[in-house]
Amino acid sequence: MKIELGGGLNPTKDYINYDIEDLPTVDIKCDLSEGIPCENDSVNEIISFEFLEHLPKEDGLKLLRECYRVLRKGGTLTIGCPDLDGTISMWNKVNKKEWNKLHYLYVQIYGTQEKSTYFHLTGWWTEELMHILKDTGFRFVRDSRDKYRLNLDTDPYFPGDRPWTADEFTSLKIYVEAMK
Fold first, then answer.
1. Integer Cα distance of 53 and 73 in angstroms
2. Banded model confidence at residue 58, pLDDT cuts 50, 70, 90
3. For FRET with 176, which of 103, 131, 137, 150 sits at 20 to 30 Å CA-CA?
4. Which helix H or strand E contains 88, and what residues bound it?
5. Average pLDDT score over residue span 74-81
6. Are 137 and 180 in contact (CB under 8 A)?
7. For strand 139-143 and strand 173-179, is the pairing parallel, antiparallel, or unpaired?
8. Which superfamily, per CATH, for 2-179?
9. Nearest-angstrom CA–CA distance, 103 and 77
10. Confidence class of residue 17 from pLDDT cuts 50, 70 and 90?
C-alpha cells in the first residue's frame, strides 16, 4: 500500500490520499495529528509534500513516529516541505523592493492563510528533519532535494513570472527520504 499524507487537491497518482479536508480528491478523510489510521507495518511507501509545516511541532513529531509505526520494514518515507533555513537565507539576500520574491518567501514561512488549514505552524530545516528521522529509528536517511528538483515552468504552486532560478528555488525546499 502506498499513501500520501495531506495531498489535498493535488494528490499523487496511485497513492491513497489522507487529508483533513473534505474534497473529492481525498480518499480517506482524517485528522493526521491524531495518527495515521493504518495497522502497524502495513504500508510500503509514504509521501508527504507541503504538509508537515501545517502541523504544530509536537503533532509533526508525533506524525513522524506514526509513519515509522505503519511502515513495513524496508518501507520508505519521503517528505517535502519549505526549508526554513534556506528561506531565511534567501530573505536576507533579496532586494526588499522585489515584491514578488518577498511575497513568495512570506508564504514559505507563514502559508497562504486563505483558511485555517493553510497556515504554516512549524518551520523545519533539512539537518533537523534528518536528525529527527534517525532518532525515530529510520535508516538510510538522505537529502533528496536534487531528485525532486522542480520544473519551474510546470509547477502549479509557483506563481507569476518565475523570479527564481532552479537552484534558488530548490534551496527553499526540503526533500528527505528515509527507510524503515
1. 26
2. very high
3. 103
4. helix 84-93
5. 96
6. yes
7. antiparallel
8. Vaccinia Virus protein VP39 (3.40.50.150)
9. 30
10. very high
Q: Please measure the distance between the N-terminal and C-terminal CA atoms of the chain and give it in whole angstroms.
A: 15
Sheet with 71-82: list strands edge to edge: 28-29, 16-19, 2-5, 43-49, 71-82, 173-179, 139-143
49 strand-pairing partners:
80
Is the model more confident about 157 or about 29?
29
The three grid cell numbers given for residue 35, joined into one nine-digit string: 495518527
Q: CA nearest 85: which of 63, 66, 65, 108?
A: 108
The half-sphere exposure of 109 on its side-chain side, counting CA atoms within 13 A, is 12
What's residue 151's pLDDT? 53
- CA 40 to each of CA 62, 67, 176, 177: distance values in angstroms, whole numbers, following the listed order: 15, 10, 22, 20
Cα dist. 28→11, 19, 37 in Å?
Answer: 12, 7, 9
155: left (phi over 0), alpha (psi -120 to 50) or beta: beta
